[in-house]
Amino acid sequence: MHRYWQTGLSTVVALTLLAMTLPIDAKEREGRRGHIEIEAKKQTMWQQTAGSSALVIIQLSGPVQEEWKEEIEDLDVKLGDYLPDFAFVAKLARSSDQKKLERLSFVKSVKPFSPVSKISPALRSAFSKEQATEVEMIRFDDDSRNSRMSSEAGQRTEDSSHEMARMTREKKSGQALDEFVLSEDIVALVPIPQNTLRNDVASTILHVDELSSSGYRGRGQIIGVADTGLDTGDEASLHPDLQGQVERLHTLGRPGDARDLNGHGTHITGSILGSGAASEGKRKGMAPEAKLVFHAIENEEEGLVTDVERILSEAYEDGARIHSDSWGDDDEGEYSYTSYLFDKFLWEHPDMIALVAAGNVGDNGYQTIGSPATAKNVIAVGATENERPRFGSQSDDADDVWRFSSRGLTEDGRIKPDLVAPGTSILSVRSSLAPGKNFDQMYDEHYAYMTGTSMSTAIMAGGVAQVREFLNEQGEKAPSAALIKAILLSSADELNEDMRLQGYGRANLENAIQTNYWDEKKGLRTKEKASFAIEVSDDSKPLAITLAWTDYPASLAANRALVNDLNLTVTTPKGKKLNGNDFFQAPFDDEVDNLNNVEQIWIKEPEKGEYKVVVQGYNIPKGPQPYAIATTGKWAEEPEQPPAKTPKEVTYRGTVDTEKNYREYTIRLMRDGDVKLSAEWAEKADVNLFLYNRKKELIAASTSKANPEKLEVENLKSGLYKIRVELKKGEKARFLLSLLYPGRW
User: Fold this and answer.
1) Residue 18 burial (CB count, 10 A)
2) For the segment 325-354, what is each residue's pLDDT rounded down to a tens digit?
């Protein structure tokens, strides 16, 4: 059922990995490979110094319980950042408070917060230099208790102005940095990342075309992009593929100037939502019916202005719930200040999903993934090869991870990238102002080829728009980012590569809309549990069960990023217990992941029967913690749902003519029930309706001469079905297709 790890191929790696040479290009026969430890040793990870200090580390005896925090705060002690394992930075009002804390039964120790713990490893060399260094100073935070949930939208909000006020950017020399480190108000000093760019066949590889032909083209979705610029920068004269696509255009790099002199921003935007107008629809983006909020961030010096808080906030205010970021810093797996900012914003806005390029330095070895792809709450995207053999060995095998795609693990041992998508020799929109040397190869005046994880990230952003459109149709009006991540990772194709290269696999969007899922927005606290039951009736394909959650942002003084720790356990029909992410060495139930905010059970050849699933809040210092589950199995018992609503009603408008005489749409019945179809049109024509199952077998047809044409089928089983509207007679018919079917509760 699980593959045994072949120990002769590997050595165990420490949490902080050194760059390693790449393995011989050979694949094992089964999946879920990697030199990966998911369980960090429990320890007090802080060096303390003697002496008195208002800033202290309170080390608790075990997983954080809410009543413990309340007892501490009742002593007029302010709790700040959480530090793994089971510790908090805290500020004492008076020195006598320390003894009161030490008398609490659950407090293991109270020690001064050492100045050395405040300094990012990447910054330590700056202290011996006279040259000034730009740093971000993080002051003590005593306001995290004010987090609250919006009952209407399930959206977490905080006093963000206070949170950002505790951060100060300074440019200081080594001596001045010493003074800040010794300050009682400073909890962390981190460097400012130096962000750079992450420089139609791909849609087939991801099965985007299956969703697009079924009507999922990003309708109703707004996608945010921050990149170099957008063609001419003037909406009236933009590339034909981008005209009418822009919802809002912001300029950060060169105020008032959104021109794309580089070509990167225009190219990735075309991959996301280009309309194909300049190619008669042949070279569309992944989600051509989505709309765009764009931030032009290249400045006069060809650098990038990456003000994360402003970019994400403005995009969110403009309606974007998907954000694509094909830039970052090659800082070798570090959880940087930029990573923190992404995690913070996504924690506060759990219905916003961000996709970030992994980087293009994978040829340097492992632990080359850059920030902000190291953020916990983003989807970090690596690149696989495209299928364009004429471009050479980097585009001739769709099942190979591109050799330059940056690799995990992160510095603290987390699994990144999350998934991979085609990123080599991608044909997309060309900026009219960018020189030809900036592209791999020109196609014509409107299109060009480019390669990189930038391209794979853009393709995934368009794919996410299709999946989100599907979820909206199923009644998930504000699906969480955790839900979309869980769906994508459960449905991904296993490439049988090391997980440090492929993450959880290559995205498969057709499979994604066939998963069963649960989006839990209330969440769990320490010691709380939730149970589910999953049925497997088909043992010919792998079973995946994925738990994902949007985690609280890590303290930049911590050396592990995970804050809220949920655990996934699954019991098989024969009674074997399995732990989330315990893939790599039998017995698969003796390691518990305390590093990642994604946990998965993946079984290549599952046994038939019922699987018991438990999600437990092991340690939730900043709760409650919402989460999502997605599985390729079926619910044995539906999770507790709101009362059933009326059947799902959907309408589509389309045209059939002599050139394209049929249109097809895919629907998913979430439960058994009846389907009613109706197509009406104004022209002198005759239109027929057909209903097929997923195997393309005809279920029913309506071929009368009536207008509207109607088709009703009773007692259909849950699953995917395809509807065809076909022109039988006439030159053209512009139709309105109405559907009534059992959607999600």
Assistant:
1) 10
2) 999 999 889 999 999 999 999 999 999 999
| H or E stretch at 461 | helix 453-473
The confidence score (pLDDT) of residue 31 equals 60
Statement: residue 682 has pLDDT above 80? yes
Tokens of 641: 């749902």
Q: Is 171 exposed, middle or buried (0-12, 13-18, 19+ CB in 10 A)?
A: exposed
Contacts of 179 (CB under 8 A, 6+ apart): none
Q: How far is CA 481 from CA 227, 468, 661, in A?
A: 22, 10, 38
Least Cα distance to 685 among 654, 652, 707, 653 occurs for 707
Element (H, E) at 90: strand 87-91
Question: Is the separation of the CB atoms in 283 and 276 below 8 Å?
Answer: yes
User: Measured in whole angstroms, how far is the alpha carbon of residue 573 from the centre of its chain?
Assistant: 31
DSSP 267-326: HHHHHHH---GGGTTSS--S-TT-EEEEEE-B-TTS-B---HHHHHHHHHHTT--EEEE-
Distance CA 52, CA 721 (A): 69
pLDDT in tens, 43-72: 544 444 444 568 899 999 999 999 999 899
- As a whole number of angstroms, the distance between CA 651 and CA 653 comes to 7
Q: Could you give the 3-state DSSP secondary structure of residue 141?
A: coil
pLDDT at 4 over 50: no
**Integer angstrom CA distances of residue 565 from 3, 106, 341, 522, 596:** 26, 19, 20, 16, 8
pLDDT at 21: 35
Number of residues assigned to the chain: 745
Query: What does the alpha-carbon distance between residue 378 and residue 372 come to, in Å, rounded to a whole number?
Result: 8
How many C-beta neighbours within 10 Å does residue 234 have?
Answer: 11
Tell me the one-letter amino acid at 480.
Answer: S
**Cis ω for the linkage preceding 578 (within 30 of 0):** no
Quickly list DSSP for 205-235.
HTTHHHHHHTT-S-TT-EEEEEES--TTS-G
Rounded CA gap, 616 and 613, in Å? 10
305 exposure class (CB count in 10 Å sphere: 0-12, 13-18, 19+): middle
**Residue written as tokens 């000034």?**
132
Band the pLDDT of 744: cuts 50, 70, 90: low
C-alpha 250/C-alpha 231 separation (Å) is: 14
Q: Using CA atoms, how far apart are residues 477 and 201, in angstroms rounded to an integer? A: 31
Check if the beta carbon of residue 601 is closer than 8 Å to that of residue 632: no
- Report the number of secondary-structure helices (H) and strands (E) in the chain: 13, 38
Q: How far apart are CA 258 and CA 275, in angstroms?
A: 20
pTM of structure: 0.82
Residues in Cβ contact with 45 at an 8 Å cutoff, skipping those fewer than 6 apart: 83, 84, 85, 87, 558, 559, 560
CA distance 670 to 346: 29
The whole-angstrom distance between residue 173's C-alpha and the CA centroid of its chain comes to 38
| 429, 382 Cβ separation under 8 angstroms | no
Residue type at position 8 = G
